[in-house]
Amino acid sequence: MSAPAPAPVNLGNDVKLTAEEAPKVKPCCVCKDEKASRDECMLFSKSDNAEKDCQSLVDKYRSCMAGYGFKLP
After folding, report:
1. Half-sphere exposure of 37 (CA within 13 A, CB side)
2. What CA–CA distance (Å, rounded) separates 18 from 6?
3. Which residues bind Cu cation (predicted)?
4. DSSP SS3 for 25
5. d(CA 14, CA 9)
């Protein structure tokens, strides 16, 4: 007598992820518009202190990244 056939495996059950288990987005894939605006301001600022001149755009970028769980220095 042969061994009974194994029960079929439903691999689809393993695919469902909860919000906590879902893969995180990569930092390069989010806040693209905010990053572009910040970079453009920093690169083309005519000010002697570009960081101070572009602070609002830097803050918007940091805030956007924080919304995705990334902490910037």
Report:
1. 15
2. 29
3. 28-29
4. coil
5. 10
Residue holding tokens 């005519």? 46
Residues in the chain: 73
Rounded CA gap, 39 and 4, in Å? 65
For the record, the structure tokens of 41 come out as 């301001």
- Rounded Cα gap, residues 32 and 15, in angstroms: 29
Rounded to an integer, what distance in angstroms lies between the CA atom of residue 3 and that of residue 16? 32
31 in a known ligand binding site: no
Residues 25-62 pLDDT 10s: 899 999 999 999 999 999 999 999 999 999 999 999 99
Structure confidence by residue, pLDDT tens digits, 18-33: 555 545 889 999 999 9
Is the pTM higher than 0.70? no
The dihedral formed by the CA atoms of 24, 28, 29 and 33, expressed in degrees to the nearest 10? 140
